[in-house]
Structures are given as C-alpha cells and as structure tokens.
Design brief:
The protein has 602 residues and is of the alpha+beta class. The chain has three domains: 3-195, Aminohydrolase, N-terminal nucleophile (Ntn) domain (Glutamine Phosphoribosylpyrophosphate, subunit 1, domain 1), CATH 3.60.20; 209-347 and 451-525, HUPs (Rossmann fold), CATH 3.40.50; 535-602, no CATH class. Helix content is 45%, strand content 15%. It is built from 27 helices and 21 strands. The strands form five sheets. A six-stranded antiparallel β-sheet has the order 2-3-1-11-10-12. A six-stranded antiparallel β-sheet has the order 4-5-8-9-13-14, covered by helices on one side. A five-stranded parallel β-sheet has the order 17-16-15-18-19, with helices on both faces. Helix 18 crosses helix 19 (449-476). The longest helix has 28 residues, at 449-476. The chain is globular and about 80 Å long. The chain starts with a strand and ends with a helix.
C-alpha cells in the first residue's frame, strides 16, 4: 500500500515528537524513506515512485509521475529546494503529470502542500496553530496522536448524499483534503490556500473542425505514448469510447498485441463485453474477459472496505479491482485507464438532458409563475398522463443549476427528518453538499452551462469519485494505473473547444466522436454509455448469502443512531418491490459505510 505522511510542530504536542507522530501514521520511525529535522518528520512507505531530499533545512517529498514543465524531464525531490526558495507557492505550476508535493522549510517554519491539476494524487491535512500533519490517506492522518480525530457527522452526511466524501471535507473532524490544482501553505501557524491552476474554457465559436480533429488524433497518440513509456502495460477495456480509444492507440504503438481486460455480466443490461470483443477484433487486442459471480463480489466487499481511507460506494470499484487483479496475476504491473474523456469532451448523459429545461427558463417569469405553474398543480391535471409529465418537467426546470443535477438523489428528494435521527440531523448542515456544488460551479472560468457542468464533473465525478475508485482498486491489486486522457496537453486542448462541439443539439461528445469516426467502429461510437457498473441490486434479490450479509450490516448501521431504522427498512422494501437497481445503489452505499466502520472497529 502506497503511503506518505508527515508532521511539523513548533512545540511538542500531546507528549509526542514529530517522529513519534510519523510512527503512529506510517509505522516507520527511521531509515530509508524517512527525513527528519528538529520539530519535523516526513516519510514514504511502499511507494517506489516517491523521492525524498533534504537541503539546508528544507525537506521535500515528491510522489507520483511528475515531470518539469520546462523540458519535460522527470522531476525529483532533490531539484525542488532551490525552486521553492525562488518561486514559493508558484512552484507546483512548474510541475506536470500526477504528483503530490510536500515542502517543509524548517528555518522558515513553513510547509507547502500541493497535488496535481486533476486530483489523481491525494493529500489530506490537519492544520493547528502549533502543528500541521499531512498524509495521503485520511485514516492514516486520523491516527496522529495530537488529533484524536472523531467521526464528523457532516462528513457522514456528505457521504450518504454523494456516496463518497468529497474534498475538501473528510470523514473526520478537523481533517481536510486538498482540491485538484490547489496548494496549501502553513506558515508560523497560519494557513493559506489557493489554486495554482484553473481549467480554461473557450466560449467563442470556431470553424476548423477538420484541422482540430487531426490535432486530437495526434494528441491522443502522444498522450498514450507518454503514459505507457517503455513499460509493458495492459489496458482496461469496457468497450466504451474512451477505453477503446486508449487501447487502440496503444495497439498502434506496439508490435505485439496489447493485453486488455474486461468485465462481463450475465445480466444483459450491464454487459457490454460484446463491444469489448468488437474493439479487440478491430485493433488486434489480446482480450481477457472476467465474469464475476455474487459469491466473488461478496468476498471482495471486506477488501474494498479496508483499502479505501474513507467509505466509498461506487459499485464499479468491484469491476476495477477484479480486472486489475487478473492483470497482476498475469504478470502486469501497469495498466492504462480511459477515465476523463466524458468530463473533458461532454460524454455524460445529463449534459444533453439539461438542455431540455433551457426553453422553460427562457419564458417570461410572470407567465411561468402566474399561469403555467399553478395550472400544472391543479388536481384535474394530475389525472392526465400529460399533466403528470408536465408537472414533473416543471418541478425540475424550476430548480436552478447545479442543484438540479441532484434532483434524483434520494437525500435530496425525501424529507431528511424521515431519513435521519433527530440528534444527527441537528448536528449537520443539510445545505453543505449543495453549497459545495455551487462553489465549484461558481469558480468555473466559463459561463456556458455545458462547460460549467464539465468543470463541476472534473471535481465531483472525476477527482472525488472515478479516480479514487480506479486508483485505490488497482493499488489493492498491486497495479500502477495511468490516465492518458488526463495528460495536460489533452486537457488544455479540450478547453479550447467551444461548448457546441462537446454537446451539439443534444448529441454527446459530438466533436470527439466525429474526429474518430472511421478509426473506431461505428457501433462503439454510437453505443449507449455503460461503464463498469455492477448488477448488485439484481443479485441482492437472487443471492441468499449476499442478502444475509447485507441484512446484518444494515441492521448494525441502524443501531448507530444516525439513520432511522424505519427508513432503512423502507429502502430494503422498495428494493424488493420496486426498482432493484435504483434502490440497490443506496443499499450498497449503506453496506459499504458499515463495512468500512467495522473494518476499523468503529
């Protein structure tokens, strides 16, 4: 397990030195992988990509696959101290690739923390007037002897709302996480935070579609080549546009067939292995398909709960782990993943769906509020199919963005008093999840709705969710994962495209698909998006062992005083009698919370 952590203090806290704190967080005190100075210690364990250096009282830890903006050479920790003295907080802007950076300047009593632009790497921290502690994993940081970090009710609520704990919050009181492209500077007990990078978007139209399509294909090839290097690499292949693109580009760079791994399911609505087979035939890939069983998934649940540093409930973590485990068993150490294409080029279904509400918002306010909306709420209208549809449409159209994107969220739709116990509800701010969405939405450089949604998803869908899912599950399998589509050159290119090239008259990823048509099979370009979803809700209805495990864990969760047991029971009933997949997703969320807590004896 890759870990890095450290502690800096201006006075001894809770009877523990900085080295004592490092030992508690990483179980190492000295030797290789540890740097220390008076009042400061930092270290890395199990991380072959981490480099450390000390120079004139400046301690540096640099992890990931960073390279310098100028020249593109690999960045090493021993190169950082002179640049820190010259550039200060602008130092992270000189780095490209995925990285976590820690600079401890002991003489200046300051600490700089930063992560890469897209949030591929992670850093959590706890800042106090007399010390700052930091770690890759939130649960490691919570073990710092001066923190005694307790579970944060707000973090628990945010997890239930988003099915993960979005940055900058965490599950523990007093612990925060860095946002993508952010730095934090602790100096003489005071904390500053800022962004060294922001995504730039172009709103102006352009006409050079063909030229930009050629440029896209060149960039894709270059970014896949940079990510794969000289290593023997395999790929994830769901059969979707992105994974097929990455696998196909890699196949064009290699003489031998590229090994690709796919998950298949007997449940037809979740299975897209036929598209993976199509991509494999088209590009000459060596495809391996794994079809998991409910028993296999049941065995994976404890491992998943242990390996995430906070509760995490994306069901497709199972598929990511099983693919990576199979690749590791076959001798691979590196895999390429296709994550990021949807958030850069406009591939998520809700981007097209939101355009349906724009015409309503453009109607005169008086017409909407005085005539249309009162009419839609009339009882006689609800007896008509069209009337019910109209009311549903109007109710969603009235919700402003980005809040409207959560319209199908159970914790948004239902009264919280019916879900949460009174004491727990009184301890949280129910508006914080939506406030977090608005904050990201509000700092988007563009004001076009498509780009605002893309910017939001770079954070909440990609950094908080998909990257954590894949990175932690590949790590659990002993695999290093790389993301060619998140190369800075490709990210910057996507920002240069006008929003109408990303979603055009409701067509998702118009430019990307048009540029690759004739290279990718049409069936893949035109297919409905699946991903690596898991038919957990369906299996839960059919598999007795899985039902027994879930019932026991949900009963235990109901005794913790956070969620009303009656609501948990109602979700279980709705899963059995109504929509297995929709309610199954919430049951998985509750299950993974209790599994995570029990794995840590909490």
């Amino acid at each position: 397990m890759r870990d890095y952590a450290g502690s800096v203090q201006t006075r001894q806290e809770a009877g523990a030195t900085a080295l004592d704190a490092l030992s508690r967080m990483l179980d190492i005190t000295s030797g290789e992988g540890v740097l220390s100075a008076p009042g400061a210690a930092l270290g890395a364990r199990g991380d072959p990509r981490a480099t450390l250096a000390a120079e004139d009282g400046v301690l540096v830890l640099l992890s990931g696959r960073p390279r310098w903006r100028e020249g593109g050479a690999r960045a090493e920790a021993h190169q950082v101290a002179p640049l820190w003295r010259r550039l200060g907080c602008d130092l992270p802007n000189q780095l490209l690739g995925n990285f976590a950076l820690v600079v401890v300047d002991v003489p200046a009593a300051s600490v700089l923390l930063a992560i890469d632009r897209l949030g591929i790497e992670a850093l959590a921290f706890a800042a106090r007037p007399h010390f700052i502690a930091f770690a890759r994993r939130v649960d490691r940081l919570a073990a710092h002897p001066a923190l005694a970090a307790a579970l944060d009710p707000q973090g628990l609520f945010n997890y239930l709302f988003f099915h993960q704990v979005p940055a900058p919050g965490s599950l523990f009181q007093g612990i925060e996480k860095l946002l993508p492209g952010e730095w934090a500077l602790w100096r003489e007990g005071r904390l500053e935070r800022g962004f060294y990078w922001r995504m730039r978007y172009r709103d102006a139209p352009r006409r050079d579609v063909r030229a930009q399509g050629e440029r896209l294909r060149r960039l894709l090839r270059q970014c896949v080549a940079r990510a794969s290097g000289e290593d023997e690499v395999a790929t994830f292949l769901s059969g979707g546009t992105d994974s097929s693109t990455v696998s196909g580009m890699l196949a064009g760079l290699r003489e031998r067939p590229v090994r690709a791994y796919c998950i298949g399911f007997e449940a037809a609505e979740f299975d897209e292995s036929d598209y993976a087979r199509l991509a494999a035939r088209h590009f000459g890939l060596d495809l391996r398909i794994h079809v998991p069983t409910p028993d296999e998934v049941l065995g994976c649940i404890p491992l998943i709960a242990r390996h995430y540093d906070e509760p995490f409930a994306n069901e497709s973590a199972v598929a990511a782990y099983l693919c990576a485990r199979r690749a590791a068993e076959d001798g691979y150490g590196v895999m390429l993943a296709g994550d990021g294409g949807d958030e850069l080029f406009g591939g998520n279904a809700r981007y097209g769906a939101q355009r349906l509400f724009a015409p309503y918002q453009q109607l005169p306010r008086a017409l909407r509020e005085r005539l249309i909306e009162p009419l839609a709420e009339q009882p006689w209208m609800q007896r008509l199919w069209l009337g019910r549809k109209a009311r549903g449409y109007i109710r969603q159209a009235r919700i402003p963005l980005p809040e409207r994107l959560e319209a199908w969220n159970l914790l948004y739709r239902e009264p919280l008093a019916s879900i949460l116990e009174p004491d727990f509800l009184a301890a949280i701010d129910p508006e914080q999840p939506l406030a977090g969405l608005r904050e990201v939405w509000g700092r988007t450089a563009a004001r076009n709705t498509i780009d605002q949604m893309l910017h939001l998803d770079l954070k909440i869908t990609l950094a908080d969710n998909d990257l954590r899912k894949v990175s932690r599950m590949t790590e659990a399998a002993g695999i290093e994962v790389r993301y060619p589509l998140l190369d800075e050159a490709l990210v910057a290119f996507s920002g240069e495209l006008p929003p109408g090239w990303k979603v055009r008259h409701g067509e998702l990823r118009w430019f990307f698909r048009a540029s690759l048509r004739g290279w990718l099979p049409d069936a893949i370009l035109d297919k409905r998006k699946h991903g690596f979803g898991l038919p957990f809700g369906l299996w839960l209805r059919e598999d007795a062992a899985l039902r027994e495990r879930v019932a026991e864990r949900l009963a235990a969760l109901g005794r913790r005083g956070w969620l009303r047991p009656s609501w948990i029971s109602a979700i279980e009933t709705a899963h059995r009698t109504e929509h297995a997949t929709y309610y199954g997703a919430m049951i998985w969320t509750l299950l993974m919370l209790e599994e995570w807590l029990q794995a840590r004896h909490l």
